[in-house]
Amino acid sequence: SYLCNIVHIVFSLIGWIRLAGSGSTRCSGRVEIYKSYYDYNSYHYRSSWGTVCDDGWDLQDAEVVCRELGCGIALEALGSAYFGQGTGTFLHSNVDCSGSETSIDNCRYSSYISYSCHHGRDAGVVCSETLPEPTISLYSNEVTWGQDVSITCSVSEKFSGGTFILQKTSGSFSQSQTSSTSSVTFNLHNVNFDHDGLYQCQYMKTSQRFNSSSVRLSVTVSFPKPRISICPVGEVTWGQTVEITCSVSTQVLGGSFTLSHIQGSFTRSQTSNTNSATFNIPNVDFDNEGLYQCQYKKRGSSREFSSPLSDSVRLSVTGKKNKNKYGLTLGKIKILTIVT
What we know:
By secondary structure, this protein is mainly β.
């Protein structure tokens, strides 16, 4: 009847699946499917367990079987009746799964069974039972700018073989390695502040990706004491411009230099793409007299790093005040450099 046909079609779409055969376990064995099919010999619908022909059978097809059974991921896709020969009819051949399907019935397959398919070609699977849980490890979570860093990603040994992906959780950094073992090591060379942040491993054997927890890589830097110098050296005439140069010995460029007047409120900052910066003090007068120091700073991804303060230099204003014929006061400025 029409109603009976509807029931059989729905049952065909749902189906049942099991793993059987010699040496089979809950999550490994010969793939068998229970479903309804139309028997053209008797012109009736029948329901029975049947097997899958191994033509085109691969790891992506096995992945879907393992997922449908709740048996983790596919470790092997086996053919040639590895778990012994089944009985009954072949229900699927030329199975072609993408690996993301929830049931083998959602994959492309052929219901037409070629004469080359026989029970000596029954397909089987070996599933992992549990899902992979990748781990990530760092030899040291804090490294100095310019060093090399090794980050290891690993899974349980039963998941040997697959692709490991190392990703920074923010940004576009991503590296991948395919391995025949259960771990890989990623080497980051000459790290800088762009490498600072959280990292995560992903493991992929077929279409699924499994994520590890995150670890933080902190990149630090230690700056030496900057050098400070004044030009011109010696006496200068009232109203001239004085140049104070700060420099630091480092390869970490792109930071800022700060020049401070120790006794007063004078402070200036200057960003530099080199390892030095020059500050100009125009039209110097006696208000500029005093000690000066400088400091180098560089902002990392999460905090700022500062050098020690430089030694100080003194800008001394000396000389006798005189008035010229116009009644203007003249003077001289003497610059002395004192290293403390």
